[in-house]
Design brief:
The structure is a single chain. This protein is of the alpha+beta class. The protein has helices at 2-11, 20-37, 56-73, 127-137, 162-166, and strands spanning 16-19, 41-46, 51-54, 79-87, 90-97, 141-146, 152-159. Strands 2-4-5-7-6 form a five-stranded mixed sheet, covered by helices on one side. Strand 6 and strand 7 (152-159) form a beta hairpin. Helix 3 runs antiparallel to helix 4. It starts with a helix and ends with a helix.
Length: 167
Amino acid sequence: AELSAAESAAVSLHLTDVDLSTLVSGAVSAARSSLAAAGLEAHVDLAEGVTVRAVPDRLHQVVANLLANVARHCRAGDSVTVAVGRAGTWAALTVADTGPGIDPHQLSQVFDRLWRGDADTEGSGIGLAVVRELVVAHGGSVTASSDGSSGTTMTVLLPLAPELAAG
């Protein structure tokens, strides 16, 4: 149901200008207790003035799902850094953890529906699929990178608000 809601959201997006750093800061704050419960330390590195056209609730869900994924797969003592910046005409959101990493051969599958990596992994396997649906619905892209042993970085690129992209 969550995934089909994400898919139908793409059809009826009511976009507003959203300060990405403010939104991400709120999402990280909301996730801090669950991250702390998993023994993880959270850091933020947020650039100012990065505005995207988005549905705030849906973008919040993207960040929340990425952080839930970190909490599920990292080990106590690991950390996660959530950063917002610019990459040309794109807003860049990265969620980088110091966890065990993802096998590089599996990186292309992490956003597939029901993919969960190891069979013993908890969760429904749709969290990252929802992330991809929502990001694509906002005209963006999401990628995962890892060397398979020292952490994973999820990178979300979203178009900057038109007035910013022009500037």
